[in-house]
Amino acid sequence: MNRITRKDLKTDRFAVEVTHTVEYLGEHRGLLYRYGGIALAILVIAGGAYFYTRTQHTARQQALADALQAQNAPASPVGNPFIKSFNSQAEKDAAVQKAFTDIISKYKGSDEAAIANFMLGTSAADRGKLQDAEKYLRAAADSGKTGYASLAKLSLADILVSEGKSADAEKMLRDVVAHPSVLVSKDQATIALARVIAPKNPQEAQKLLEPLRTVSGATGQAAMNALSEITPKK
Known about the structure:
About 70% of the residues lie in helices and about 0% in strands.
């Protein structure tokens, strides 16, 4: 997803297509008299659809930006005139819940709705509301938005394990391993899977982790940490 505050610096493709269409009709005046009405109607419909889609996209991104701003705002009775803030944590939680819920309701099926479900799910998990967390994360996981869905599955797996649903978590993580995304790599999903199956199948968990422990950076460190957790202490 592009950054919410990023300006659209690309050429306006619709404007270019309109220009080409006008040039073409100018060169074929005879056809214009015969088909001009049809061409104009198509042009108007296409233009309306284009600008409606563009406006909707901007509105979705602005709604998400506002919701994220609310989520990151401080909660204190001492306000700050230069930044958004809330008088209490309860007031903030209610505003954030409403903002993300409105996005889900108004822009169902969009990237922004998937992100809103994910944010509500992780927020609910932080507050110990596991049933709510599972509901929102499942919605994000089932959204069809590949990157956000895989990220939601990774978080949802933790919820499922805590609820005693390790088999469901394992199935979900194996799917992410088989279908990694730009937000969740195969290595990340493999480490998460190894942690889930380690209690019942430490041999397979070790087999999954061994090739990753020599990978440089955070992946190798995470694999080594996971290995140390499942390798019997001597």
